[in-house]
C-alpha cells in the first residue's frame, strides 16, 4: 500500500507541474484529492488494515496529501499570475463602443433646456449674452443697483456673505453696471446664471438660476419693454398669450412693474386651474425702466440719464420651467431622479 501511495504521489506531482491552465489544474485536484479519488479513499480505509500497517500507511498517505495540496496551491498561484498578464495584454476594451445593453442618448436637464430656449428667444430679438462672477462685491450686488443701506436683502439672514464686502450674488443684476462700465450705449444684453439666497422650500432653493435683461438706448419707453416681453411670452408659452403690467417696486427700476402672462392651461368647468387659480393670469417676472440713479454710477462711461433710457427685467429659469411643464415642487429639479427628468425629452 505504501508503494501505491508513492506511485500516486509521483504521478500527481508530475501532472500538477505540467498543468497548462487553471481549469486543467482543478481537474487534477479532483482526480487526485477529490472525494472519489484513490488517495483519500486510502486514508478512509486505514481502519481496515492490519494494525502493524496502519501507522506507516496513514503517515505516508497524509504526507502525500499535504504535499499535493501545497503543490496545487503553488501551481495555481503561478498559473493565475500568468493568465492575468495574458488577459491584460490581450483583453483590450474599446471605451467608445456602446454599452451592453446600449444606453439611450442623454438629453439636456430641464433647467438647461429651458435656459437655452429663453436665450434663443432673446438672441432672436437682438440681445446678446453676457456672463459675470457668482462671487460678487457688495458694491455691484447692492450699491450700484440703488439698494438703500437698510434694504432687507443686505441682511446676513437673507444673503450668503463670503467676506465683509463680498457675497454670493443674489441676482444676475450686478452685470448691469459691469456691462455699462465695459462699453457705451446702445446696449442690449441678457445675463443668465446661478444666484444664491437663504431660502429652501417647495418654491425656493438656496441656489437657483436667473436671466436678467437690460436694454439701453435713446427713446426707449415702457411700451418697448411690454412689446419685448409680449414677444417672449408668446414664444415660450404659445402664440395666444397676452401680458399685463402691474405697478411694483424694485430699487433699480422706476417705474417698476410685475409682469403677468395670460394663463396657458386648458380651463375645465368645475375644476380649479392649478396654475392661475382661475384668475386667468400668471406672474412670470419683474421689470421696469432703469432708475436714473443707476445710470449715475456709470455716467462717465457714456450713460447720461438726460440722453438715454433703458429697461430691465429678471426672471427665474426654474419658475419658467415649472409653469411651462407643470412641475409642482421646485426641489424635483434638483433631486436627480431619472424617472422625473426623462419625462422632458
Topology:
Blueprint: H1 2-17, H2 22-33, H3 38-44, H4 51-90, H5 110-124, E1 128-129, E2 135-137, H6 138-141, E3 161-163, E4 166-168, H7 175-182, E5 187-196, E6 207-217, H8 222-237, E7 243-250, E8 253-262, E9 281-290, H9 292-296, E10 309-316, H10 317-325, H11 338-341
Helix pairs in contact: 1-2, 1-4, 2-4, 3-4, 5-10
Task: Explain how this protein is built.
The chain has 2 domains: 2-90; 110-341, BirA Bifunctional Protein, domain 2. Strands 1-5-6-10-9-8-7 form a 7-stranded mixed beta sheet, sandwiched between helices. The model has no long low-confidence stretch (mean pLDDT 88). Helix 1 packs parallel to helix 4. Helix content is 39%, strand content 20%. It is elongated. It has helices at 2-17, 22-33, 38-44, 51-90, 110-124, 138-141, 175-182, 222-237, 292-296, 317-325, 338-341, and strands at 128-129, 135-137, 161-163, 166-168, 187-196, 207-217, 243-250, 253-262, 281-290, 309-316.
Oligomer: single chain
Residue runs with pLDDT of under 50 for 5 or more positions: none
Strand order of the largest sheet: 1-5-6-10-9-8-7
How much of the residues is beta strand, in percent?
A: 15-25%
CATH topology of the largest domain: BirA Bifunctional Protein, domain 2
Amino acid at each position: 500500500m505504501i508503494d501505491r501511495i508513492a506511485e500516486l504521489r509521483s504521478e500527481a506531482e508530475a501532472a500538477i507541474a505540467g498543468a497548462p491552465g487553471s481549469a486543467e489544474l482543478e481537474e487534477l485536484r479532483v482526480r487526485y484529492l477529490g472525494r472519489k479519488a484513490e488517495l483519500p479513499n486510502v486514508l478512509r480505509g486505514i481502519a481496515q488494515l492490519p494494525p502493524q500497517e496502519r501507522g506507516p500507511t496513514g503517515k505516508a498517505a497524509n504526507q502525500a496529501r499535504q504535499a499535493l495540496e501545497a503543490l496545487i496551491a503553488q501551481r495555481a498561484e503561478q498559473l493565475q499570475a500568468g493568465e492575468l498578464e495574458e488577459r491584460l495584454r490581450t483583453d483590450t476594451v474599446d471605451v467608445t463602443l456602446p454599452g451592453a445593453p446600449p444606453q439611450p442618448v442623454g438629453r439636456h436637464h430641464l433647467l438647461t433646456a429651458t435656459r437655452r430656449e429663453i436665450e434663443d428667444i432673446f438672441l432672436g430679438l437682438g440681445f446678446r449674452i453676457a456672463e459675470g462672477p457668482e462671487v460678487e462685491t457688495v458694491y455691484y450686488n447692492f450699491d450700484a443697483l440703488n439698494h438703500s443701506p437698510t434694504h432687507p436683502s443686505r441682511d446676513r439672514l437673507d444673503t450668503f456673505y463670503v467676506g465683509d464686502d463680498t457675497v454670493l450674488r443674489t441676482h444676475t443684476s450686478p452685470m448691469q453696471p459691469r456691462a455699462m462700465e465695459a462699453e457705451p450705449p446702445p446696449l442690449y444684453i441678457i445675463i443668465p446664471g446661478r444666484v444664491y439666497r437663504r431660502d429652501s422650500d417647495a418654491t425656493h432653493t438656496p441656489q437657483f438660476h436667473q436671466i436678467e435683461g437690460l436694454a439701453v438706448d435713446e427713446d426707449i419707453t415702457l411700451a418697448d419693454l411690454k412689446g419685448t416681453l409680449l414677444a417672449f411670452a408668446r414664444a415660450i408659452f404659445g402664440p395666444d398669450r397676452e401680458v399685463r403690467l402691474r405697478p411694483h417696486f424694485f430699487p433699480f427700476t422706476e417705474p417698476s412693474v410685475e409682469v403677468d402672462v395670460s394663463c396657458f392651461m386648458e380651463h375645465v368647468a368645475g375644476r380649479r386651474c392649478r396654475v392661475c387659480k382661475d384668475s386667468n393670469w400668471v406672474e412670470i417676472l419683474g421689470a421696469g425702466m432703469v432708475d436714473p440713479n443707476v445710470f449715475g454710477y456709470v455716467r462717465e462711461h457714456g450713460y447720461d440719464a438726460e440722453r438715454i433710457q433703458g429697461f430691465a427685467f429678471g426672471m427665474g429659469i426654474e419658475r419658467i420651467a415649472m409653469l411651462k411643464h407643470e412641475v409642482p415642487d421646485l426641489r424635483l429639479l434638483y433631486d436627480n431622479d431619472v424617472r422625473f427628468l426623462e419625462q422632458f425629452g
